[in-house]
Amino acid sequence: MISRIDLRGAALPEGAALPEGAALRALLPRADFDVSAALEKVRPLCEDVRHRGDAALIELAQRFDGVRLERVRVPDEALDQALADLDPQVRAALEESIRRARLVHREQRRDPHRVQVVPGGSVTEKWVPVERVGLYAPGGRSVYPSSVIMNAVPAQEAGVASIALASPPQAEFGGLPHPTILAACALLGVREVYAAGGAQAVAMFAYGTRSCAPANMVTGPGNIWVAAAKRYFTGRIGIDTEAGPTEIAILADDSADAEHVAADLISQAEHDPLAAAVLVTDSARLADAVEKELATQVAASKHVEDRIAPALAGRQSALVLVDGVEEGLRVVDAYGAEHLEIQTRDAAALAERVRNAGAIFVGPYAPVSLGDYCAGSNHVLPTGGCACHSSGLSVQSFLRGIHIVDYTRDALADVARHVVTLAEAEDLPAHGAAIKARFGWKVPETTT
Predict the structure, then answer these.
(1) What is the mean predicted confidence (pLDDT) over 381-398?
(2) 72: which residues sit within 8 A by CB, 6+ positions away?
(3) What residues act catalytically?
(4) Alpha carbon 254 to chain centroid distance?
(5) Neighbours of 9 (CB within 10 A)
(6) What is the pTM of this model?
(7) Distance CA 78, CA 177 (A)
(8) Using an 8 Å Cβ cutoff, are 82 and 184 in contact?
(9) How far are the Cα atoms of 234, 328, 377, 398 from residue 129, in angstroms, in the given order?
Protein backbone atom coordinates (compact mmCIF):
# COMPACT_ATOMS: atom_id res chain seq x y z
CA MET A 1 0.00 0.00 0.00
CA ILE A 2 2.86 2.39 0.84
CA SER A 3 6.59 2.01 0.28
CA ARG A 4 9.44 2.34 2.76
CA ILE A 5 12.67 4.28 2.49
CA ASP A 6 15.35 3.28 5.00
CA LEU A 7 17.77 6.11 5.76
CA ARG A 8 19.18 4.55 8.92
CA GLY A 9 22.93 4.19 9.17
CA ALA A 10 22.92 0.43 8.69
CA ALA A 11 21.00 0.80 5.43
CA LEU A 12 23.38 3.37 3.96
CA PRO A 13 26.55 2.44 2.08
CA GLU A 14 29.30 1.41 4.48
CA GLY A 15 30.87 4.41 6.11
CA ALA A 16 28.33 6.81 4.60
CA ALA A 17 26.46 9.38 6.64
CA LEU A 18 23.02 10.80 6.00
CA PRO A 19 23.57 13.11 3.00
CA GLU A 20 22.89 16.83 3.00
CA GLY A 21 21.01 19.28 0.78
CA ALA A 22 20.21 18.21 -2.76
CA ALA A 23 21.65 14.73 -2.21
CA LEU A 24 19.21 14.14 0.64
CA ARG A 25 16.28 15.62 -1.26
CA ALA A 26 16.99 13.22 -4.12
CA LEU A 27 16.36 10.28 -1.80
CA LEU A 28 12.94 11.53 -0.72
CA PRO A 29 9.61 10.84 -2.43
CA ARG A 30 8.04 13.48 -4.66
CA ALA A 31 5.25 13.48 -7.24
CA ASP A 32 5.97 13.99 -10.93
CA PHE A 33 4.61 17.45 -11.81
CA ASP A 34 6.00 18.82 -15.06
CA VAL A 35 4.74 22.39 -15.36
CA SER A 36 7.10 23.07 -18.26
CA ALA A 37 5.45 20.41 -20.40
CA ALA A 38 1.99 21.72 -19.52
CA LEU A 39 3.07 25.25 -20.42
CA GLU A 40 3.08 24.55 -24.15
CA LYS A 41 -0.42 23.10 -23.95
CA VAL A 42 -1.93 26.07 -22.14
CA ARG A 43 -0.28 28.68 -24.37
CA PRO A 44 -2.86 28.44 -27.21
CA LEU A 45 -5.75 28.48 -24.70
CA CYS A 46 -4.41 31.64 -23.09
CA GLU A 47 -3.87 33.36 -26.42
CA ASP A 48 -7.37 32.37 -27.54
CA VAL A 49 -8.77 34.19 -24.51
CA ARG A 50 -6.55 37.16 -25.29
CA HIS A 51 -7.96 37.52 -28.80
CA ARG A 52 -11.57 36.38 -28.38
CA GLY A 53 -12.32 37.12 -24.76
CA ASP A 54 -15.68 35.93 -23.45
CA ALA A 55 -16.41 34.01 -26.65
CA ALA A 56 -13.30 31.90 -26.07
CA LEU A 57 -14.27 31.31 -22.43
CA ILE A 58 -17.73 30.13 -23.46
CA GLU A 59 -16.33 27.79 -26.10
CA LEU A 60 -13.69 26.38 -23.72
CA ALA A 61 -16.32 25.78 -21.03
CA GLN A 62 -18.22 23.61 -23.50
CA ARG A 63 -15.03 21.81 -24.52
CA PHE A 64 -13.61 21.11 -21.07
CA ASP A 65 -16.59 21.30 -18.70
CA GLY A 66 -19.40 20.09 -20.93
CA VAL A 67 -21.58 23.16 -20.39
CA ARG A 68 -22.95 25.80 -22.73
CA LEU A 69 -22.77 29.18 -21.04
CA GLU A 70 -24.88 32.17 -21.98
CA ARG A 71 -22.50 34.44 -20.09
CA VAL A 72 -19.40 33.99 -17.99
CA ARG A 73 -20.25 36.25 -15.06
CA VAL A 74 -22.44 34.73 -12.38
CA PRO A 75 -25.58 36.83 -11.78
CA ASP A 76 -26.08 38.34 -8.34
CA GLU A 77 -29.31 36.45 -7.83
CA ALA A 78 -27.45 33.15 -8.15
CA LEU A 79 -25.14 34.17 -5.31
CA ASP A 80 -28.08 35.17 -3.11
CA GLN A 81 -29.99 31.99 -3.91
CA ALA A 82 -26.97 29.81 -3.14
CA LEU A 83 -26.65 31.44 0.27
CA ALA A 84 -30.37 31.11 0.96
CA ASP A 85 -30.24 27.40 0.08
CA LEU A 86 -27.08 26.66 2.07
CA ASP A 87 -27.35 24.04 4.79
CA PRO A 88 -27.45 25.96 8.12
CA GLN A 89 -24.71 23.79 9.63
CA VAL A 90 -22.44 24.39 6.65
CA ARG A 91 -23.16 28.11 6.89
CA ALA A 92 -22.28 28.14 10.58
CA ALA A 93 -19.03 26.29 9.89
CA LEU A 94 -18.08 28.67 7.06
CA GLU A 95 -18.87 31.70 9.22
CA GLU A 96 -16.66 30.35 12.02
CA SER A 97 -13.87 29.64 9.55
CA ILE A 98 -14.15 33.22 8.24
CA ARG A 99 -14.16 34.65 11.77
CA ARG A 100 -11.01 32.80 12.78
CA ALA A 101 -9.21 33.58 9.53
CA ARG A 102 -9.97 37.28 10.01
CA LEU A 103 -8.57 37.22 13.56
CA VAL A 104 -5.24 35.86 12.33
CA HIS A 105 -4.93 37.79 9.08
CA ARG A 106 -5.96 41.14 10.58
CA GLU A 107 -2.83 41.02 12.73
CA GLN A 108 -0.67 40.72 9.60
CA ARG A 109 -1.40 44.26 8.46
CA ARG A 110 1.65 46.50 8.17
CA ASP A 111 2.00 50.12 9.21
CA PRO A 112 4.27 52.68 7.50
CA HIS A 113 7.76 52.79 8.99
CA ARG A 114 9.97 55.90 8.83
CA VAL A 115 13.74 55.83 9.34
CA GLN A 116 15.60 59.07 9.97
CA VAL A 117 18.86 58.29 8.15
CA VAL A 118 20.51 61.66 8.80
CA PRO A 119 19.19 65.04 9.89
CA GLY A 120 17.00 66.17 7.00
CA GLY A 121 17.10 62.78 5.28
CA SER A 122 14.58 60.01 5.78
CA VAL A 123 13.27 56.87 4.10
CA THR A 124 9.70 55.79 4.79
CA GLU A 125 8.32 52.44 3.72
CA LYS A 126 4.59 52.47 3.12
CA TRP A 127 2.47 49.43 2.29
CA VAL A 128 -0.06 49.65 -0.50
CA PRO A 129 -2.46 46.88 -1.53
CA VAL A 130 -2.64 45.76 -5.14
CA GLU A 131 -5.63 47.37 -6.83
CA ARG A 132 -7.36 44.29 -8.21
CA VAL A 133 -6.94 40.56 -7.66
CA GLY A 134 -8.41 37.50 -9.30
CA LEU A 135 -8.98 34.57 -6.96
CA TYR A 136 -9.26 30.99 -8.12
CA ALA A 137 -11.28 28.29 -6.37
CA PRO A 138 -10.77 24.85 -7.94
CA GLY A 139 -13.50 22.43 -8.92
CA GLY A 140 -13.09 18.90 -10.23
CA ARG A 141 -12.96 16.04 -7.75
CA SER A 142 -14.03 18.15 -4.76
CA VAL A 143 -15.59 21.47 -3.91
CA TYR A 144 -13.46 23.93 -1.95
CA PRO A 145 -15.39 26.78 -0.30
CA SER A 146 -12.55 26.82 2.22
CA SER A 147 -10.22 28.00 -0.56
CA VAL A 148 -12.57 30.91 -1.22
CA ILE A 149 -12.11 31.93 2.41
CA MET A 150 -8.35 31.43 2.41
CA ASN A 151 -7.93 33.65 -0.66
CA ALA A 152 -10.55 36.31 0.00
CA VAL A 153 -9.90 37.03 3.67
CA PRO A 154 -6.23 38.06 3.36
CA ALA A 155 -7.02 40.11 0.26
CA GLN A 156 -9.82 41.90 2.08
CA GLU A 157 -7.75 42.44 5.22
CA ALA A 158 -4.95 43.86 3.04
CA GLY A 159 -7.41 46.43 1.71
CA VAL A 160 -7.64 45.23 -1.89
CA ALA A 161 -10.40 47.37 -3.44
CA SER A 162 -11.46 45.08 -6.29
CA ILE A 163 -11.76 41.31 -5.81
CA ALA A 164 -13.09 38.85 -8.38
CA LEU A 165 -13.27 35.07 -8.17
CA ALA A 166 -13.38 32.34 -10.80
CA SER A 167 -14.40 28.72 -10.35
CA PRO A 168 -15.14 26.07 -12.98
CA PRO A 169 -18.69 25.83 -14.35
CA GLN A 170 -20.54 22.68 -13.33
CA ALA A 171 -22.93 20.89 -15.66
CA GLU A 172 -24.81 19.59 -12.62
CA PHE A 173 -25.63 23.16 -11.60
CA GLY A 174 -26.62 24.61 -14.94
CA GLY A 175 -23.19 25.92 -15.83
CA LEU A 176 -22.69 27.81 -12.57
CA PRO A 177 -19.85 27.08 -10.14
CA HIS A 178 -20.75 24.80 -7.27
CA PRO A 179 -23.43 26.46 -5.10
CA THR A 180 -21.33 26.12 -1.94
CA ILE A 181 -18.61 28.15 -3.66
CA LEU A 182 -21.20 30.78 -4.54
CA ALA A 183 -22.56 30.79 -0.99
CA ALA A 184 -19.08 31.31 0.42
CA CYS A 185 -18.61 34.25 -1.93
CA ALA A 186 -21.88 35.74 -0.75
CA LEU A 187 -20.88 35.34 2.90
CA LEU A 188 -17.61 37.13 2.20
CA GLY A 189 -19.20 39.90 0.15
CA VAL A 190 -17.39 38.85 -3.04
CA ARG A 191 -20.00 39.72 -5.67
CA GLU A 192 -17.91 39.51 -8.83
CA VAL A 193 -17.80 35.80 -9.67
CA TYR A 194 -17.09 34.04 -12.96
CA ALA A 195 -17.85 30.55 -14.22
CA ALA A 196 -14.41 29.86 -15.62
CA GLY A 197 -11.89 27.17 -14.84
CA GLY A 198 -8.35 26.08 -15.57
CA ALA A 199 -5.82 28.04 -17.59
CA GLN A 200 -8.55 30.04 -19.29
CA ALA A 201 -9.64 31.52 -15.96
CA VAL A 202 -6.09 32.73 -15.29
CA ALA A 203 -5.97 34.16 -18.84
CA MET A 204 -9.25 35.97 -18.23
CA PHE A 205 -7.75 37.72 -15.22
CA ALA A 206 -4.43 38.40 -16.94
CA TYR A 207 -5.77 39.88 -20.18
CA GLY A 208 -9.27 40.95 -19.21
CA THR A 209 -12.36 40.43 -21.35
CA ARG A 210 -15.51 42.42 -22.08
CA SER A 211 -17.11 41.18 -18.87
CA CYS A 212 -14.01 40.97 -16.66
CA ALA A 213 -11.47 43.72 -16.12
CA PRO A 214 -7.84 42.60 -15.97
CA ALA A 215 -6.33 41.94 -12.55
CA ASN A 216 -2.95 42.84 -11.13
CA MET A 217 -2.55 39.51 -9.38
CA VAL A 218 -3.98 35.97 -9.41
CA THR A 219 -3.95 33.65 -6.40
CA GLY A 220 -5.42 30.32 -5.45
CA PRO A 221 -4.67 26.61 -5.81
CA GLY A 222 -5.50 24.60 -8.91
CA ASN A 223 -4.37 21.74 -11.13
CA ILE A 224 -1.30 21.58 -13.33
CA TRP A 225 -3.01 23.67 -16.03
CA VAL A 226 -3.64 26.49 -13.56
CA ALA A 227 -0.03 26.27 -12.39
CA ALA A 228 1.21 26.38 -16.00
CA ALA A 229 -0.95 29.41 -16.78
CA LYS A 230 0.42 31.21 -13.73
CA ARG A 231 3.94 30.56 -15.00
CA TYR A 232 2.94 31.75 -18.48
CA PHE A 233 1.70 35.07 -17.12
CA THR A 234 4.42 35.68 -14.54
CA GLY A 235 5.71 39.16 -15.21
CA ARG A 236 2.39 40.35 -16.58
CA ILE A 237 0.57 39.65 -13.34
CA GLY A 238 1.62 38.76 -9.83
CA ILE A 239 0.98 35.22 -8.59
CA ASP A 240 1.07 33.51 -5.23
CA THR A 241 2.71 30.22 -6.20
CA GLU A 242 2.60 27.46 -8.79
CA ALA A 243 0.72 25.05 -6.59
CA GLY A 244 1.49 21.39 -7.19
CA PRO A 245 -0.06 18.27 -5.67
CA THR A 246 -0.81 18.63 -1.99
CA GLU A 247 1.47 16.95 0.55
CA ILE A 248 1.83 16.08 4.20
CA ALA A 249 4.95 15.07 6.08
CA ILE A 250 4.72 13.79 9.64
CA LEU A 251 7.76 13.71 11.91
CA ALA A 252 6.98 11.25 14.70
CA ASP A 253 8.70 9.22 17.39
CA ASP A 254 7.43 6.23 19.35
CA SER A 255 5.16 8.45 21.46
CA ALA A 256 2.89 9.09 18.46
CA ASP A 257 -0.47 7.38 18.09
CA ALA A 258 -0.41 5.17 14.98
CA GLU A 259 -4.16 5.60 14.51
CA HIS A 260 -3.79 9.39 14.39
CA VAL A 261 -0.81 9.25 12.06
CA ALA A 262 -2.55 6.91 9.61
CA ALA A 263 -5.71 9.02 9.64
CA ASP A 264 -3.71 12.15 8.86
CA LEU A 265 -1.85 10.48 5.98
CA ILE A 266 -5.16 9.31 4.51
CA SER A 267 -6.73 12.75 4.95
CA GLN A 268 -4.17 14.21 2.58
CA ALA A 269 -4.24 11.25 0.18
CA GLU A 270 -7.96 11.73 -0.45
CA HIS A 271 -7.31 15.00 -2.28
CA ASP A 272 -5.76 13.58 -5.41
CA PRO A 273 -3.98 10.46 -6.75
CA LEU A 274 -0.81 12.58 -6.87
CA ALA A 275 -1.14 13.74 -3.24
CA ALA A 276 1.92 12.95 -1.11
CA ALA A 277 1.75 11.29 2.30
CA VAL A 278 5.12 10.92 4.05
CA LEU A 279 5.93 9.67 7.55
CA VAL A 280 9.44 10.27 8.90
CA THR A 281 10.14 8.30 12.08
CA ASP A 282 12.90 6.73 14.11
CA SER A 283 10.52 4.05 15.35
CA ALA A 284 10.21 0.89 13.26
CA ARG A 285 7.46 -0.18 15.66
CA LEU A 286 5.45 2.94 14.83
CA ALA A 287 6.00 2.42 11.10
CA ASP A 288 4.69 -1.14 11.38
CA ALA A 289 1.67 0.01 13.37
CA VAL A 290 0.91 2.82 10.92
CA GLU A 291 1.06 0.38 8.02
CA LYS A 292 -1.50 -1.85 9.72
CA GLU A 293 -3.71 1.14 10.53
CA LEU A 294 -3.56 2.29 6.93
CA ALA A 295 -4.89 -1.04 5.72
CA THR A 296 -7.76 -0.90 8.22
CA GLN A 297 -8.69 2.75 7.75
CA VAL A 298 -8.36 2.83 3.97
CA ALA A 299 -10.77 -0.10 3.71
CA ALA A 300 -13.36 1.98 5.57
CA SER A 301 -12.75 5.18 3.58
CA LYS A 302 -14.44 6.86 0.63
CA HIS A 303 -12.56 7.76 -2.58
CA VAL A 304 -10.26 4.74 -2.19
CA GLU A 305 -9.82 3.55 -5.77
CA ASP A 306 -9.62 6.90 -7.53
CA ARG A 307 -7.59 8.86 -4.96
CA ILE A 308 -6.42 7.35 -1.69
CA ALA A 309 -4.99 4.03 -2.87
CA PRO A 310 -3.03 5.46 -5.83
CA ALA A 311 -1.79 8.37 -3.70
CA LEU A 312 -0.45 6.11 -0.96
CA ALA A 313 1.04 3.65 -3.44
CA GLY A 314 2.59 6.34 -5.63
CA ARG A 315 6.26 7.28 -5.71
CA GLN A 316 5.40 10.48 -3.83
CA SER A 317 4.42 8.68 -0.60
CA ALA A 318 6.53 6.62 1.80
CA LEU A 319 7.36 5.65 5.36
CA VAL A 320 10.89 7.00 5.91
CA LEU A 321 12.98 5.41 8.66
CA VAL A 322 15.77 7.41 10.30
CA ASP A 323 18.16 6.79 13.21
CA GLY A 324 16.78 9.50 15.47
CA VAL A 325 14.59 12.56 15.75
CA GLU A 326 17.55 14.82 14.95
CA GLU A 327 18.05 12.97 11.67
CA GLY A 328 14.31 13.17 11.10
CA LEU A 329 14.44 16.94 11.51
CA ARG A 330 17.14 17.10 8.82
CA VAL A 331 14.97 14.99 6.52
CA VAL A 332 11.82 17.09 6.89
CA ASP A 333 13.83 20.28 6.42
CA ALA A 334 15.24 18.85 3.19
CA TYR A 335 11.75 17.79 2.10
CA GLY A 336 10.17 21.22 2.77
CA ALA A 337 6.60 19.99 3.14
CA GLU A 338 3.49 22.00 2.39
CA HIS A 339 2.06 20.66 5.67
CA LEU A 340 4.36 19.37 8.41
CA GLU A 341 2.96 17.66 11.47
CA ILE A 342 5.26 17.05 14.45
CA GLN A 343 4.08 14.28 16.74
CA THR A 344 6.96 13.79 19.14
CA ARG A 345 7.57 14.20 22.86
CA ASP A 346 9.10 17.65 22.36
CA ALA A 347 6.96 18.76 19.42
CA ALA A 348 6.82 22.48 20.25
CA ALA A 349 10.60 22.74 20.69
CA LEU A 350 11.21 20.89 17.44
CA ALA A 351 8.73 23.12 15.61
CA GLU A 352 10.84 26.14 16.57
CA ARG A 353 13.84 24.57 14.84
CA VAL A 354 12.14 23.73 11.54
CA ARG A 355 13.34 25.97 8.71
CA ASN A 356 11.43 24.68 5.69
CA ALA A 357 7.67 24.10 5.83
CA GLY A 358 4.55 25.80 4.52
CA ALA A 359 2.80 25.36 7.86
CA ILE A 360 3.69 23.40 10.99
CA PHE A 361 1.14 21.53 13.10
CA VAL A 362 2.31 20.84 16.63
CA GLY A 363 1.33 17.80 18.67
CA PRO A 364 -1.49 15.27 18.52
CA TYR A 365 -4.34 17.78 18.55
CA ALA A 366 -3.33 20.04 15.66
CA PRO A 367 -3.95 17.90 12.55
CA VAL A 368 -3.70 19.36 9.06
CA SER A 369 -7.49 19.12 8.74
CA LEU A 370 -7.77 21.80 11.43
CA GLY A 371 -5.58 24.11 9.37
CA ASP A 372 -7.57 23.36 6.24
CA TYR A 373 -10.69 24.85 7.77
CA CYS A 374 -10.75 26.44 11.20
CA ALA A 375 -7.33 27.01 12.78
CA GLY A 376 -7.28 30.60 11.54
CA SER A 377 -4.11 29.93 9.53
CA ASN A 378 -4.04 29.93 5.73
CA HIS A 379 -4.11 26.71 3.75
CA VAL A 380 -2.80 28.13 0.46
CA LEU A 381 0.79 26.96 0.95
CA PRO A 382 3.94 26.27 -1.11
CA THR A 383 4.28 22.72 -2.44
CA GLY A 384 6.96 20.65 -4.15
CA GLY A 385 9.73 21.76 -1.79
CA CYS A 386 9.10 25.46 -2.51
CA ALA A 387 8.75 26.08 1.23
CA CYS A 388 12.54 26.55 1.26
CA HIS A 389 12.03 29.91 -0.48
CA SER A 390 8.31 30.77 -0.44
CA SER A 391 5.58 31.43 2.12
CA GLY A 392 1.92 30.65 2.31
CA LEU A 393 -0.74 33.16 1.30
CA SER A 394 -1.15 36.04 3.74
CA VAL A 395 -2.08 39.71 3.92
CA GLN A 396 1.51 40.46 2.92
CA SER A 397 0.98 38.63 -0.36
CA PHE A 398 -1.37 41.42 -1.43
CA LEU A 399 0.75 44.34 -0.23
CA ARG A 400 3.54 46.21 -1.99
CA GLY A 401 6.24 48.02 -0.06
CA ILE A 402 7.07 51.46 -1.49
CA HIS A 403 10.02 53.53 -0.26
CA ILE A 404 9.51 57.28 0.08
CA VAL A 405 12.85 59.12 0.01
CA ASP A 406 12.77 62.64 1.49
CA TYR A 407 16.07 64.61 1.66
CA THR A 408 16.71 68.32 2.21
CA ARG A 409 19.39 70.27 0.31
CA ASP A 410 21.76 70.05 3.25
CA ALA A 411 21.20 66.31 3.67
CA LEU A 412 21.94 65.72 -0.02
CA ALA A 413 24.98 67.98 0.11
CA ASP A 414 26.36 65.96 3.00
CA VAL A 415 26.45 62.74 0.94
CA ALA A 416 26.81 64.18 -2.56
CA ARG A 417 30.51 63.37 -2.94
CA HIS A 418 29.91 59.70 -2.11
CA VAL A 419 27.12 59.47 -4.67
CA VAL A 420 29.29 61.04 -7.37
CA THR A 421 32.22 58.76 -6.51
CA LEU A 422 30.07 55.64 -6.79
CA ALA A 423 28.52 56.83 -10.04
CA GLU A 424 31.94 57.36 -11.56
CA ALA A 425 33.13 53.98 -10.25
CA GLU A 426 30.26 52.38 -12.18
CA ASP A 427 31.04 54.48 -15.28
CA LEU A 428 27.68 56.24 -15.08
CA PRO A 429 28.75 59.90 -15.18
CA ALA A 430 25.22 61.19 -15.86
CA HIS A 431 24.22 59.83 -12.46
CA GLY A 432 26.86 62.00 -10.87
CA ALA A 433 25.90 64.94 -13.06
CA ALA A 434 22.35 64.79 -11.67
CA ILE A 435 23.85 65.47 -8.26
CA LYS A 436 26.29 68.17 -9.43
CA ALA A 437 23.50 70.07 -11.22
CA ARG A 438 21.87 70.79 -7.86
CA PHE A 439 25.00 72.49 -6.54
CA GLY A 440 26.13 74.56 -9.49
CA TRP A 441 28.17 71.61 -10.81
CA LYS A 442 30.52 71.85 -7.85
CA VAL A 443 30.30 68.89 -5.50
CA PRO A 444 30.11 69.94 -1.84
CA GLU A 445 32.66 68.56 0.59
CA THR A 446 31.34 65.56 2.47
CA THR A 447 31.24 66.06 6.21
CA THR A 448 30.35 62.51 7.21
Answers:
(1) 94
(2) 54, 57, 58, 61, 194, 195, 196, 204, 209, 211, 212
(3) 338-339
(4) 32
(5) 15
(6) 0.93
(7) 10
(8) no
(9) 18, 40, 20, 6
